[in-house]
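Duplicate of #3305? Posting structure anyway:
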């Protein structure tokens, strides 16, 4: 049988970017710098995005006492979750990696430190699982159940990130059904260690027990118990002088217990690299052997005894196998030395502080802190007194501010800050720090690590080379997956709605105040709902819209754009001032692919039109009159609006492209919603019709800025497109009502000047109309002026006038009669409506109406 060679456990992960996307690591001690500089790059290379580290809470507090200011400065995209064990310590050493179809599990003895993964002598057991297989299903299931027991100690985005495991690795939920009764997987021990050993390992005919541990009780209780209950012929104990030795062990009473120095057990021992940290107990019989390995030291707090469980949180493996030419220790190149250690070294060992130094006894602990836009959310172990202050510190150790706070719950607090360089927090009482330091997680950075497979595929596609000007329509299928339901456009997960309701601007409609999410109401609305605004940034529609925007302006480094899109919402002066960007150049393109892309463009525009039309179908199918009460109006969310922006960017990208003399998309007529004019008039008209109530209002400042940027860019692109294509004389009146509706719908008065500066001489009539909008709106917004100047009796002589209706927008009257029946051309077609005796016109008079 071959030797087991020394290997860095990180090498087990490999470099395949398709295998794993998420991980959970558990450890007692944690080195921020080592993790960020050595481990995260390995994860990034393997595309492991959702990274979560469970660390002993008291040990983490100690680590955070020694923060340098560099932590979280670059790698802000992983979660550190403190786990508190009030009786003992949180000490398991696990690495669980999960992918869409497989997993890797590593159980051992090493912490997430340089010594734990590089220098120390550690021992690990590794297991692989493939979806649908029974192999190792049992141990994966048991480990998952163990980890889930600690999920309640995760807060904020960290809690959400843990839900992504089962969402994106569905095989986890099926593990239990795959467990075979014949499974011979290693036994996973997470509690009752000594009791499990007593029940699983035979007590008769035991030849030898080998104990390898860096730490022992002062009296060596575990050694005593093993001798008493198993009565082996010999017990070999390997100790490391840099650990903690059993100085009060009754050596004279145990002549068959031999102690050895670890350095003598390794032929290649190097004091700089071979400090003992492995935990092994080896049971040797004539015909078989058992190996116990993992995180548990040979101490009573870890093992417990025959009556009591240990107080530490530990994980170990118990493995059984038949004897072979080499036993486990021999395969690991561990040799029992011929020479025992000088017992005086053990007897004279001065006990140091072991695993207790971090329990500093603060009056309170900050369990977790998170940055949400302009808010800092803090989770504490105990209630904060009214006189306490929350102190924020920057990376240079300078106190930035003492913040008052709002109590969200008994142990959840929030405060508002514009400070962007806050690094850590603590609680102060009467000028004295009474809590640990706590690093601040960034919710936006954590959100970006969602391994959702749809987003992962889209991200990979967005990183592709589209330099030849073809293939962009491949992105459209990631929009089309969500046509049926607006709510489904949000990132899947446990988020709940937290949008605010908009105010109708028409005085004839029932006005409602915005539902402002005040600080005092923050958690009463459900804290999870606040995260939903952040989830929207990961929506495929927004990613595709951002990509097209970047492509249009000729952004060279698209990857950089994708990584920081939420922080560059107002992009640059070129787009803000209406820069037209760079058109793709005409190239020789494969004819079949060109036909396919042309069909996909038409299909997308058709789907978009039908999607909007479906929302108002009852209104259009009225037999005699178009009944305004059947017209359901909604708020437009940024995800729905991005569909329109994608269509507009798609048209602008492809409208000058040709293949075999044929355009990808033609201007067409206003009746053809799958061509350019039809999109501008009919589809945009439907959008105005459906969303006359206005836009959804968001709490997140980045989301607000992104939405405003989208709306501004949307208007600019429409104006450029309208003024750049040819309109028949009979079609130009539709241009007028399009621009009027756009001003009314978006509330953007800059459209007036922009249109007038872009429009050529063929649009003189439209320019004359649009230039009067501002004056008309002032009259409309004053109820008395509206009655005096804008409201007219319905009569036949109104033919050709522009009518305004709060639900339908602007249109052109074809005919009207005194019965209140009006036939008018709106963007969505010729409609017959019954309005009563009066209507509102777009007409400017210098004096009272005739």
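Output from current build:
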């Amino acid at each position: 049988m071959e030797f087991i060679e020394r290997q860095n456990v990180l090498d087990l992960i490999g470099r395949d970017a398709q295998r794993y996307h998420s991980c959970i690591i558990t450890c007692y001690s944690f080195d921020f710098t080592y993790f960020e500089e050595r481990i995260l790059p390995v994860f990034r290379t393997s595309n492991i995005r959702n990274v979560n580290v469970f660390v002993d809470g008291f040990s983490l507090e100690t680590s955070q006492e020694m923060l340098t200011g560099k932590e979280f400065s670059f790698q802000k995209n992983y979660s550190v979750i403190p786990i508190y064990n009030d009786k003992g310590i949180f000490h398991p050493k696990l690495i669980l990696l999960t992918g869409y179809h497989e997993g890797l599990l590593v159980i051992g003895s090493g912490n997430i430190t340089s010594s734990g993964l590089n220098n120390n002598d550690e021992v690990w057991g590794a297991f692989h699982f493939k979806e649908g297989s029974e192999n190792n299903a049992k141990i994966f299931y048991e480990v998952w159940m163990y980890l889930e027991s600690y999920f309640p100690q995760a807060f904020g985005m960290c809690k959400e990130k843990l839900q992504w495991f089962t969402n994106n690795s569905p095989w986890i939920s099926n593990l239990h059904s795959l467990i075979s009764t014949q499974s011979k997987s290693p036994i996973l021990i997470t509690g009752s260690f000594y009791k499990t050993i007593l029940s699983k390992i035979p007590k008769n005919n035991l030849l030898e027990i080998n104990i390898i541990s860096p730490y022992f009780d002062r009296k060596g209780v575990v050694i005593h118990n093993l001798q008493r209950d198993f009565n082996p012929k010999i017990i070999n104990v390997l100790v490391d002088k840099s650990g903690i030795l059993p100085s009060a062990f009754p050596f004279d009473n145990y002549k068959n217990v031999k102690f050895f120095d670890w350095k003598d057990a390794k032929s290649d021992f190097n004091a700089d690299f071979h400090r003992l940290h492995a935990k092994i107990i080896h049971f040797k019989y004539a015909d078989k052997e058992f190996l116990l390995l993992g995180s548990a030291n040979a101490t009573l707090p870890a093992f417990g005894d025959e009556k009591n469980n240990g107080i530490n949180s530990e994980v170990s493996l118990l493995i059984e196998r038949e004897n072979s030419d080499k036993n486990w220790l021999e395969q690991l190149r561990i040799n029992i030395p011929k020479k025992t250690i000088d017992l005086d070294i053990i007897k004279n060992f001065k006990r140091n502080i072991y695993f207790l130094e971090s329990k500093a006894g603060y009056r309170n602990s900050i369990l977790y802190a998170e940055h949400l836009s302009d808010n800092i959310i803090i989770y504490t172990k105990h209630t904060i007194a009214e006189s306490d202050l929350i102190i924020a510190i920057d990376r240079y150790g300078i106190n930035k501010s003492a913040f008052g706070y709002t109590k969200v719950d008994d142990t959840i607090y929030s405060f508002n800050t514009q400070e962007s360089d806050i690094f850590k927090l603590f609680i102060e009482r009467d000028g004295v720090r009474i809590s640990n330091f706590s690093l601040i997680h960034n919710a936006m950075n954590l959100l970006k690590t969602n391994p959702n497979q749809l987003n992962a595929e889209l991200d990979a596609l967005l990183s592709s080379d589209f330099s030849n000007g073809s293939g962009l329509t491949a992105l459209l299928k990631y929009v089309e997956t969500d046509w049926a339901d607006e709510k489904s456009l949000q990132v899947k997960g446990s988020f709940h709605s937290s949008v605010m309701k908009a105010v109708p601007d028409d005085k004839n409609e029932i006005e409602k105040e915005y539902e402002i999410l005040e600080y005092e109401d923050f958690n009463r609305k459900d804290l999870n709902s606040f995260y939903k605004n952040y989830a929207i940034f990961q929506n495929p529609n927004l990613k595709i819209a951002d990509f097209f925007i970047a492509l249009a302006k000729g952004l060279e480094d698209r990857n950089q754009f994708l990584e920081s899109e939420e922080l560059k919402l107002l992009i640059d002066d070129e787009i803000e001032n209406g820069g037209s960007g760079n058109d793709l150049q005409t190239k020789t393109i494969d004819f079949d692919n060109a036909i396919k892309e042309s069909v996909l463009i038409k299909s997308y525009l058709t789907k978009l039109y039908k999607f909007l039309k479906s929302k108002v179908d009852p209104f259009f199918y009225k037999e005699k009159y178009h009944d305004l009460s059947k017209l359901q109006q909604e708020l437009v969310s940024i995800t729905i609006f991005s569909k329109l922006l994608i269509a507009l960017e798609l048209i602008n990208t492809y409208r000058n492209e040709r293949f075999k003399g044929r355009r990808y998309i033609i201007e067409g007529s206003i009746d053809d919603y799958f061509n350019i004019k039809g999109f501008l008039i009919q589809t945009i008209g439907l959008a105005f019709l459906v969303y006359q109530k206005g836009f959804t209002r968001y709490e997140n400042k980045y989301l607000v800025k992104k939405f405003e940027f989208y709306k501004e860019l949307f208007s600019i692109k429409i104006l450029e497109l309208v003024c750049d294509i040819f309109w028949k004389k009979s079609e130009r009146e539709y241009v007028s009502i399009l621009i009027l509706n756009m001003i009314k719908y978006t509330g953007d008065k800059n459209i007036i000047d922009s249109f007038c500066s872009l429009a050529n001489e063929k649009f003189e009539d439209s320019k004359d109309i649009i230039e009067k909008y501002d004056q008309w709106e002032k009259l409309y917004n004053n109820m008395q002026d509206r009655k005096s100047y804008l409201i007219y009796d319905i009569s036949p002589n109104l033919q050709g006038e522009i009518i305004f209706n709060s639900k339908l927008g602007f249109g052109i009257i074809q005919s009207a009669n005194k019965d209140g029946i009006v036939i008018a051309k709106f963007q969505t077609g010729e409609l017959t409506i019954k309005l009563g005796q009066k209507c509102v016109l777009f007409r400017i008079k210098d004096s009272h109406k005739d």
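Confirmed duplicate; merging threads. The two ends are 107 Å apart (CA to CA). Residues 591-614 form the longest helix (24 residues).
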